[in-house]
Description:
InterPro entries: DNA_brk_join_enz (IPR011010), Integrase-like_cat_sf (IPR013762), Integrase_catalytic (IPR002104), Integrase_recombinase_N (IPR010998), Tyrosine_recombinase_XerCD (IPR050090)
Family: Belongs to the 'phage' integrase family.
Protein name: Site-specific integrase
Radius of gyration: 32 Å
Domain Tyr recombinase: 152-323
CATH architecture of the largest domain: Orthogonal Bundle
Distance between the termini: 86 Å
Shape: extended
Region (Disordered): 333-372
Number of helices: 17
Number of strands: 8
Order of helices and strands: EEEHHHHHHHHEEEHEEHHHHHHHH
Amino acid sequence: MPRPKQPPRLVEIKGRENWYIRDGREVVSTGATDRTEAEQCLIDYNNHKAAPARTASIWELLDKRMEDMRGREVARADNTRSYHKHLCGHFGKLRPDQITSVHVHAYWKLREKRPAALRDELIELRTTLKFALDSGWINRVPRIDIPAKRPPRYRFITREEAASLLYAADLPHLRAFILIAMTTGARKGAILGLTWDRVDLENCRIDFHDPERRMTKKRRTVVPIATTTAEALEYLRRCAQTPFVIEFLGKPVKDVKKSFQRACESAKLKNVTPHTLKHSVISWLAMDGFTVDEISDMTATTRETIITVYRKFDPGYLAPVAKSLAPPEGIANQFAKLSQEPESQKRQNSQGSHAFLVGERGFEPPAPTSRT
């Protein structure tokens, strides 16, 4: 069995002063007699060897970008890889200097049915090109037009619809997933990665933070669960075959997309995804009057996102503001009189409507008062 090839390394050659770099059968002189200088030459040699050619294609640069992300153990590396599949199909054979707005907008047309994916993919392409520029592999970054971010669609379901979805789940692992999602507001990845050693059924707590997972912007936290939820999970734990809470046939479940969709069809729910449950939990808590901080801590969601949902589902928190803007007493009577006047008189009054609003129809605006 042949020995594995060794990486480039420094060697000495008998009868010669300089240090040399041996790379397989190739031997290259560093031109340096000092070991420290020779090591610097070796670093330059490895960097040059790892760098793509000046004529590198987008496909090669995307591969280098992936190598860098995996070398730094970036948590989203696997998700980023899915963007590269579509980018390579359209831009792969082009060099960076060959990309024009025609190519970019043709890609817009190609992916117009997936607007969110289109935006993420083009951002990844631009990031890759900036990475290549910073590494000295290309001279400039071509213009990459990115579509504007669409306003989020906060699809949510009621508690009754969530219950029907739970009972429509015909597989134990899916029913457990939906139960945890609708009672904690946790993300899909946090639930699928949950292990039994982080589920404290005695004290009714779940720790969604995986100690082996790198910290990202998507927070995970320790949350309490209801007694009824703990009782249901106790039955699952008795039958567990793996350390993972969500398992199927003795293996951890990587995704619930297909089984979740079947359950939605059985429950007659449209446009519902696992992430919809998170939005729904936030909306339920907002409608129940819980504060932004309470909802944020419970669902491990940023305050900005909570506030957006809060304004939609519980605008009652602005009631004191509305009260401070209340018109004078008796305004309704004035509008009632106006509605009973003849059309000719209404037109005359409409011409002087500004006067009506400043007190020329029988009432004066209140004097300003200081708020306590």
